[in-house]
Amino acid sequence: MSTETPLDLFWFVPTSGDGRYLGSRQGARPQDFGYLREVAMAADRLGYGGVLLPTGNQCEDPWITGAAIAPWTQRLKFLLALRPGVQTPAQWARQAAAFDRISNGRLLMNVVTGANPKELAGDGIFLDHAQRYAQTEEFLTIFRGLFTEAGVDFSGEYLSSRGGKQHFPPVQRPHPPLWFGGSSAPAIEVAARHVDTYLTWGEPPAQVAAKLEAVRARAAITGRQLRFGLRVHLIVRETDAEAWAAAERLIAHLDDATIAAVQQRRAEDSDSVGQRLQTELHGGRRDRLEVSPNLWAGVGLVRAGVGTALVGSPETVAARLREYQALGVSTIIASGYPHLEEAYRVAELLFPRLGLGGVAAPQVAARDFVTTGGSYGTLAA
């Protein structure tokens, strides 16, 4: 992929809470709706392409939250996470079509199979790793079939549909784009067969290159081509030295006992290949956190999911992002602590280096939506 093409940069809405320090209540911010809306509105105003809202039992529901925030934004796309096993493909299809129409075609769907059997059991999902991906395969087969002219008849081991059809079409055809991540062989197979964009967490470029090539090869067998996205944190300051100092401040209140407890619990609870790869980058040690030039694994000492951040000046971080772009990555889903301030900092410092205009969206007031029409619908006065 040409590195002359601007990257599409998304931001993250911290629906499990936010703060200035990792693993500490000092400077912590709860995930109240007003704050989450502020983060999304800032991303919209600053010119980010979209926002990711995650799923999990410690997160506000992404679909309810996203639906409440969307009317306060104008151009922002919403990448909403969903778990295949918690409701039927038909119900997800109806929600997706409704959200897409209400937002005027701004929905993206992030299909999350899940990595923590204990958490999944709380949601009523009692499947092992291989079974969950088999269920995801069936889910996506039915989901995509619901949006076809003929509808879908499918009988699987985990999910079935007889005469299924989505009768209210979305704005985006045939359905809102499907995003998906996973590092195991079953995950790569599902991605190659069904999704539009494959996501990887921030790993050293050589590891990312190998993963993306594996996905390309599997997709090519069925004549498909996928887009690729990278999920990573960003710590950008005016100089490299300032950025590294900010990275150290982020974990300044972490002690070794907390790190060890988190790492042990994660090893016991998660069966995710991607999570294991993130942990192997640092091994729970503070003295081996720069795992690739400017790729820092300090976030992963206590945070589940993506645990790496690109650290440096705008010039440095832009150069590292271009390295991933050269591998085929076209979308970066970024985050930073705290997310409101860092959304501005990244836009102001990094956007110009990436050729992103950062065109501001107009300020949006609640009264603007108390109308009798328009693309955003209405809100009660």
From TrEMBL:
Alphabetized UniProt keyword annotations: Flavoprotein, FMN, Monooxygenase, Oxidoreductase
Classification via Gene3D superfamilies: Luciferase-like domain
Q: What is its EC number?
A: 1.14.14.5
- A Pfam family hit: Bac_luciferase
Domain Luciferase-like, residue spans: 10-330
What does the record give under GO molecular function?
alkanesulfonate monooxygenase activity
Gene Ontology biological process: alkanesulfonate catabolic process
* Protein family membership: Belongs to the SsuD family.
From the Swiss-Prot or TrEMBL record, give the protein name: alkanesulfonate monooxygenase
* Organism the protein comes from: Roseicella frigidaeris
